[in-house]
Write a structure and sequence with these properties.
2 domains; 41% helix; globular; 8-stranded parallel beta sheet; TIM Barrel; 17% strand; 3-stranded antiparallel beta sheet; alpha/beta
């Protein structure tokens, strides 16, 4: 079956909402944070470790899997779930963001047909079209596929974004026409930068195509301010259906997740928790910490006293610092487990605050505690 969203409660003072997503792999509550498994693996973690963080939907990357090992290899293996041995729902992105961010020498030709670029691996000239992106995702057999869109930079002008939106809408129609996997949901993507009129137009026109869910794209770009990110959400949400999933792409900072939920977003994803883990950094209730710091050499407390993850139940900052400074792989794994669980636990608490109609009070308390790192 395709994923189905049900809205169970709307918070009284904000746009925050509590709901459930029904999938072929079970029912999951929202708001939700989704770990990113770029190359069919969450870096440094086994599928069992990912599941132990109480993760629901996991992401995989169409662009990277297209290049290696190739969609036909994964199709031959029986689809992405079997290939990576993950028995939960999987969302695949369209590859659009990677084409625009990873293309070799950043040179690419955007035409009506699609985007021609050079592979970041070997410089081979490639063409990714809306049809090709959907064809790849059909073969990957993810539970949720994303429409192929243009990903403009944060510096794009209003005029450029208007033309870009029109192209993205045409690409979305073409992708929807060739989508053939009956068990796979297809989401549309709303663009428009920080401009109210463009976000409204993009949302209304995308919703007319009746996708299974909708994402707010074009946020969390290099050079984008927090204010512009929040504007993009505020200007998009009013025009998205209440009975469909709302997905904010590429956002994983704890404070941004809270702000997104308050504005009406249901699901989030980001590579941030595993990326900073590999550099020795961890989320805590009192802000982000860097375990390279010498002050943790003899610290025999968990990364976060309030965390219930495997890492915090079994290891100390002192030991993890030793792993990080000696470049042992286990250090990145333990911090990745913690960081992912931290964000998932955050969304669990946000769900309870929505049910209790006190999410604004929760935000205030979280921010006050989060800014006390040195206390």
């Amino acid at each position: 079956m395709k994923v189905k969203y049900s809205l169970l409660h709307q918070e009284e003072k904000t746009n925050a909402r509590y709901g459930i997503i029904e999938t072929n792999y079970g029912t999951y509550e929202t708001p939700m944070f989704m770990p990113v498994g770029t190359r069919a693996t969450v870096k440094g973690l086994t599928p069992e470790q990912v599941k132990e963080t109480k993760a629901g939907i996991c992401l995989a990357n169409t662009y990277h899997l297209w290049l290696r090992p190739g969609e036909n290899i994964i199709d031959h293996a029986g689809g992405l779930h079997r290939f990576m041995n993950y028995d939960g729902p999987i969302l695949t992105d369209s590859g659009g963001f990677q084409v625009f961010s990873l293309a070799k020498n950043k040179k690419k030709d955007i035409t009506e047909e699609g985007v021609q670029f050079k592979s970041h691996i070997d410089g081979q000239k490639l063409l990714l079209t809306p049809e090709k992106s959907i064809e790849i995702q059909n073969k990957l057999d993810s539970d949720i596929a994303m429409s192929f869109d243009e990903c403009p930079p944060a510096s794009a002008t209003h005029e450029y974004l208007k033309n870009s939106i029109e192209r993205t809408l045409r690409w979305a129609r073409r992708g929807k026409q060739v989508h053939k996997n009956p068990n796979q949901s297809l989401f549309g993507i709303v663009q428009g930068g920080p401009y109210k009129d463009l976000r409204k137009y993009s949302a209304i026109e995308t919703v007319k195509m009746d996708f299974d869910g909708y994402s707010i794209g074009g946020v969390a770009n290099d050079g984008e301010s927090k204010e512009d990110m929040y504007k993009a959400i505020d200007y998009s949400i009013p025009y998205l259906p209440k009975d469909k999933i709302r997905y904010l792409m590429g956002v994983g900072d704890p404070l941004d997740i809270i702000e997104g939920v308050i504005r009406g977003v249901d699901i989030f994803d980001c590579v941030l928790p595993t990326r900073i883990a590999r550099h020795g950094q961890a989320f805590t209730r009192r802000g982000k910490i860097n375990l390279h710091n010498a002050k943790f050499i003899k610290d025999l407390t968990p990364v976060d006293l309030e965390c219930d993850c495997y890492t915090c139940r079994n290891y100390t900052k002192s030991y993890i610092r030793h792993l990080i400074t000696t470049e042992e792989m286990l250090g990145g794994t333990l911090l990745s487990i913690h960081n992912i669980r931290f964000l998932i636990k955050l969304t669990e608490e946000l769900r309870e605050s929505i049910k209790n109609n006190n999410i604004l009070e929760y935000r205030q308390k979280f921010i006050e505690q989060y800014n006390k790192q040195d206390a």
